[in-house]
Amino acid sequence: MNPTSDNFFERVYIVARKIPYGKVTSYGAIAKVLGAARSARMVGWAMNAAHTLEDVPAHRVVNRNGLLTGKHHFDGTNLMQQLLENEGIQVKDNQIVDFKKVFWQPEMEHH
Fold first, then answer.
1. What pTM was computed for the model?
2. Out of 43, 90, 104, 111, which could bridge 27 as a Cys pair, Cβ 3.0 to 4.6 Å?
């Protein structure tokens, strides 16, 4: 599989759309579920490109430590944090409080 393909981005978005309200996941968790464990950075690029897509909750994807690393790709400096806080997720110093509690593990899709 060529990870630079648009198809990879689309697969990332399919997983991201499943992240429940009030939950977050990480770039690495999405990469892993797509069978591309080393491609967390590619997932990051996909999320950065997703902010124009209304139906992809890119604000729910953070790094493995719960840091809002993608926040500068949102309009307005604190938009990502506000979107998360609107869902009841606490953020302090750009980091999610109780990260493990709100973490959502994507499941493998069996086709």
1. 0.88
2. 43
Residues 6+ apart with CB under 8 A from 25: 15, 16, 19, 60, 61, 62, 103, 104, 105, 106
List helix spans (H) across 1-111: 6-16, 27-33, 40-50, 79-86, 99-102
pLDDT at 111: 45
Contact 81, 91 (CB under 8 A): yes
CB 24 within 8 A of CB 61: yes
Q: What is the mean pLDDT of residues 1-12?
A: 73
Measured CA to CA, the distance from residue 62 to residue 16 in angstroms comes to 11
Phi/psi zone of residue 25: left (φ > 0), alpha (ψ -120 to 50 degrees), beta? beta
What is the enclosing helix (H) or strand (E) of 96? strand 95-96
Q: Which tokens go with 62?
A: 């953070």
